[in-house]
Amino acid sequence: MHIHAYEKLWLACSVLLILFLIGTVTYGAVGPGVAMVADSEQPIDAQNLDESERFADPGVEQVGENEYAAYVVARQFSFQPDPIVVPADSTVTFYVTSADVIHGFEVVGTNANTMVIPGEISTLTVETDEPQEYGLICNEYCGAAHHAMEGKVNVVS
Ligand code: CUA
Q1: Same domain membership, residue 52 and residue 77
Q2: 122 is a domain residue
Q3: What is the pTM of this model?
Q4: Which of ligand 1's atoms lies nearest the C-alpha of 149?
């Protein structure tokens, strides 16, 4: 009789463990994983960027005395605009979105680096100093020509 009781206990434990594991996997898939895109604004329709006021013709605009907003579209396999021209000694906020798949946005040699997700707007603020030409690369695999997806960020006086 004792043996039977133990078997039931172990069976119950096994079932609980399985439910716990399923719960962990499910929660992990829909829970914290999605929270990574904390630096984005309101979602945007990736299929209709042409109808977006800010991304139909993306570019750099002055928004304050020394502040600029740079709107950038990443798509297979380029960045628009290219080059992205921003003034020296200023604060520049990049607003980056994708027209198709997930891309990366990394200004080479700096810590300016973000993932770019269709339907989301990644924002990133930098301080520019001296005039300099920077490379811009995609660091998320996005298709056959991922390795060739690059642009320029030109800091000008
Ligand atoms: Cu775009 Cu890799």
Answers
A1: yes
A2: yes
A3: 0.73
A4: 1
